[in-house]
Write a structure and sequence with these properties.
binds hypoxanthine; alpha/beta; Rossmann fold
Amino acid sequence: MIDYEALRGYVEKIGSRIGFAPKIGIVLGSGLGELADKMQSVYSISYMEIEGFPVSTVEDHVGQYVFGYIEDVPVVCMQGRVHYYEGYTMEEVVLPIRFMGMLGVEQVILTNAAGGISADFDTGDIVLLSDHIATFVPNPLIGYKAVDSADRFPDMTQVYDKGMREVMKSVAKEQNTTVKEGVYIQLTGPSYETPAEIKMAGLLGADIVGMSTACEAIAARHSKMKVCAISYVSNPAAGLGDVPLSHEDVKKQAKKTAGTVAKLIKGYCKAVKEQ
Ligand code: HPA
């Protein structure tokens, strides 16, 4: 059982250390870690220092919160996330997201590298999520002690905030960056999918596939934060490309697009500041 009350002590400790409430929380996917290195940071804390927190076991996933400013907007970046395939429960996987809500974050930007399923999506494309399919992974709210029925059965009609998406699209336009919109399916991994599974996912309406994000979006909505999610297509999904899938290739390609995504996020922060 997760002791949410015990986490309040850490919220207070971090709050008094940084002296501001982060407005935007950014979860950095594969290849995007540098955004946290380059921002104007004032404080960072490793997940390991927070009792009860899941710690990433994936090599080169750092696993820390970095607090600071992007374009003068107070933010917190999650440099490294934990995945369900690492063996944690879904409730544990989304704990760092809930914690951002406890810190006062109002808007969450989730990022990830994903495989392209739909013929409209090519490697290198940037995709704003319009919706997701999370039915193939356990719901992260299972086991959460709800306080009322709205808390127990939260609406998920619009997980990905239309307003945030519109701002993101206008920033992309200003930056001459093409962004698409699509439906993400979260599968557990860690094995990549089979071609038959990808065919199934496509028939179900998924445009892109990955092993994170949807569960985090559910928890963020449950914590009353607005959500925007950005995927960057790192490979054609299984059976649609010429070569077998490898984590190394996914990382290499993700890094190529990450700079453009980082610029988009910076532009978004600037737009929010000017609102
Ligand atoms: N499948 C699942 N997760 C992924 C993929 C993929 O093809 N690419 C990047 N993350």
